[in-house]
Amino acid sequence: MVSVKFCEKELSMNHNTVVDWCNYMHEVCANSILRIQSRIGGPNMTVEIDESLFSRRKNHTGRQLPQQRIFGGICRETKECFLVAVPDRTSATLMSVIKDRIMPGTTIMSDQWSAYGALARDPNFRHFTVNHSLNFVDLTTGAHTQSIESLWGKCKTRNKLQWGTRRSLLDSYLCEFMWRQTVKARQVDPFEEILDEIAIFWPPSEDL
């Protein structure tokens, strides 16, 4: 799950074979995330939320491509995160993801996008905002979204290293990134973890 170009060079494999195997590993990571992921945050925990745009800006003809909006969150205390492709940034869409991915009792920090206004009326969450046009950190409450901004940077950098992501494969790429973040947060060996996940996804045949 490194760059396609690196694998082609170091393993002397052709492009299509490398892409196929990268996609196989994305499937393994996606299966792991779908199997084990639970809601993040909870009482006495803080989750930062934000949206960002992902896409290759141009195709091989130079034509501008449509962008995909991703909504994400990260827990400051555990470093657990979620990343979800969303069709828009309306209050209904974002609140649905928040309730599905964040535990009640969580303190949520965001920018001042109007769609987050519903959080102030939801008794299940405490909500603080920061006005990025004025400060990176709110001078009164200390609210900031630096953790989620850092997460976007890591995610997009890795995406570029892998030559960008085709729209049809974006969900599986995001699952791989979340899997890596989960493994890092748990402080376990990623190589041993991926071997375990491969065995779960493709269990050995009983005939062997």
Describe the structure in brief:
The chain is of the alpha/beta class and 208 residues long. It has helices at residues 4-11, 15-36, 91-101, 146-161, 170-186, 190-201, and strands spanning 46-54, 68-75, 81-86, 107-110, 126-129.
- Report the strand count: 5
> What's the number of helices?
6
How would you spell out the order of helices and strands?
A: HHEEEHEEHHH
Radius of gyration: 19 Å
Detailed description of the structure:
The protein has helices at residues 4-11, 15-36, 91-101, 146-161, 170-186, 190-201, and strands at 46-54, 68-75, 81-86, 107-110, 126-129. It is of the alpha/beta class and 208 residues long. The chain has two domains: 1-36 and 173-208, no CATH class; 40-165, Nucleotidyltransferase, domain 5. It has a five-stranded mixed β-sheet with strand order 3-2-1-4-5. Helix 2 (15-36) crosses helix 5 (170-186) and helix 2 (15-36) packs across helix 6 (190-201). The longest helix is centred in the first third of the chain and has 22 residues, at 15-36. The two termini are 28 Å apart. The model has no long low-confidence stretch (mean pLDDT 84).
Q: Any descriptors?
A:
208 residues, alpha/beta, Nucleotidyltransferase, domain 5, 2 domains, five-stranded mixed beta sheet, 6 helices
